[in-house]
Amino acid sequence: MQLLDPVAAAIVFGGTLTATLLRCGWRDVRAALTALVALPTRPFDSGRVRSELAAQVREIDRDGILRAEPHRFGDGAFDDLSDALIRHRSIAALHDEHARQRSRRQRGAEIAANVLGEAADLAPVLGLAGTLVALGGFSAGGDADYARSIGTAVVTTLYGLVFANFVFGPLAGAVARRARAEERERQELLDWLADAVERSIPRHASPSEAQAAA
Q1: pLDDT band for position 106 (50/70/90)?
Q2: Cα dist. 125→10, 174, 185 in Å?
Q3: What does the angle CA 59 – CA 60 – CA 64 come to, to the nearest 5 degrees?
Q4: What's the predicted TM-score (pTM) here?
């Protein structure tokens, strides 16, 4: 039996991708591809963002939230959080903006993981389909192609199991784990930022302004 069979690999892998696209739709598949492209890149750098946020906190502590200007941190989510904090002069607005962004990120991660999970479910089915194709070729070709047909039939089943359990399934888990780790770090940063801003507000605002900011 030849374990490296390009025809069997093409049937299983190509068929799985096609079936996943038909089942999930291009928009969800594109979200999964975006998540996969991001996997090899550097994860969310909470240390760098925290150091950038510290400058914003120092400015608020020095000048007060009413005179502070929004900063840019190189992270789109925290750029938007800074805008919301300074524009509304409110910690509640900071939490609301974070909740919206977290919901959007979680939705994207869930879609990506679901698409890869669908591919993991479909790969063994396409392996079985490749097996049937190989056996059908044997029936048409006669005894001369017996060994090759049986080998291809077995390999396609093997490829379906390998792609499901060693490619698509682990990738779905990796996307979900990365998303959970990033959300934990973002939540910790948000809590730190909100606490630091809340401590600085009473030193610069009147009682009514401090109550409104909270």
Answers
A1: very high
A2: 14, 23, 39
A3: 120
A4: 0.83
